Every structure is written in C-alpha cells, then in structure tokens.
Amino acid sequence: MVTLLGKPGCHLCDEAFAVIARVCAELGVRYEVRDITMADDEEKEEYWDKIPVTFVDGRQHDYWRVDERRLREALR
C-alpha cells in the first residue's frame, strides 16, 4: 500500500501522484492520497515542509519528489 500525503494546488504533489498512480497501476498495488490540511497538528508539524511525502506500507519512503525506480524497488 502506498500513501501520498500532499495538499491541493501543490505542483510537486501532482507530479508525485502521477508517478504513484502509474507505478501502482502497473504493479497492481493499492494507493491512497491524504490531504495534509486535514491531518492532525502533530502530522502537520512533522511533514508540512516535506510534502509531498510518500509512505510504503506505513513507513516514510520519499519526500518532495518520487523516484520511480526507488518506488518500484520498494514495492517488489
């Protein structure tokens, strides 16, 4: 499971989403997108300056950009 933590109107989040959606579709992996503006204060404090943040199976994988090769490797 891949989770993208981002916010509306964020161009880096849009780019990360495109990579995640493509890779997950090809590999048959589920993904979700979460809006950091709806997160609790602790999560906002930890991740706000890093969005988009990508998690694989609940563990932080990347931030700011999604490296397609690294994501594929993590999902194998």
Automatic annotation (TrEMBL):
Pfam assignment, any one: Glrx-like
Transmembrane feature ranges: none
InterPro entries assigned: Glutaredoxin-like (IPR008554), Glutaredoxin-like_YDR286C (IPR052565), Thioredoxin-like_sf (IPR036249)
Organism superkingdom: Bacteria
PANTHER family in UniProt: GLUTAREDOXIN-LIKE PROTEIN C5ORF63 HOMOLOG
Name the record gives this protein: Glutaredoxin
Highest classification ranks of the organism: Bacteria, Bacillati, Actinomycetota, Actinomycetes, Streptosporangiales
